[in-house]
Amino acid sequence: MSIDSTKSVSTIAATLNCDLINAQQKQPTAKVKSKPCIEPSTNVSLNQTVSLLSSTNDINMEKVNKIKHAIETGSLLVNTDKIADELIRHTMEYLTMEMDIEGE
Q1: Structural domain tally of the chain?
Q2: Is 34 a member of any domain?
Q3: Considering the domain boundaries, does residue 85 fall inside one?
Q4: Does any domain span residue 102?
Q5: Is residue 86 included in any domain, yes or no?
Q6: What is the pLDDT of residues 1-28, one digit of tens each?
Q7: 88 is in which domain, residue-wise?
Q8: What is the C-alpha R_g of the chain?
Q9: 8 Å CB contact between 76 and 67
Q10: Backbone dihedral region of 38: left (phi > 0), alpha (psi from -120 to 50 degrees) or beta?
Q11: 100 or 103: which carries more pLDDT confidence?
Q12: What pLDDT is stored for residue 15 in this prediction?
């Protein structure tokens, strides 16, 4: 192959229709108005929820006070074997659940 035998290459610009490009550039771009998802006047009232939550007696205050007193006096007994067993059980459940999810 010699340099003299190469074909002439036309540029891309020469093949484009200049009139079409000029017409597209003159067209205005579309503008979209967006509405906010939440109106500025939206009010949220948590008073009922707060009063409902504070009126429930889910916490056994007598037990809490006994534990506080045991901590203060240094007489609180902690069953470390039970804590360790529960930690291991929860960890095993978590790992089993993770393996089930990955296997799907």
Answers
A1: 1
A2: no
A3: yes
A4: yes
A5: yes
A6: 555 555 555 555 555 566 666 666 666 6
A7: 77-104
A8: 37
A9: yes
A10: beta
A11: 100
A12: 55
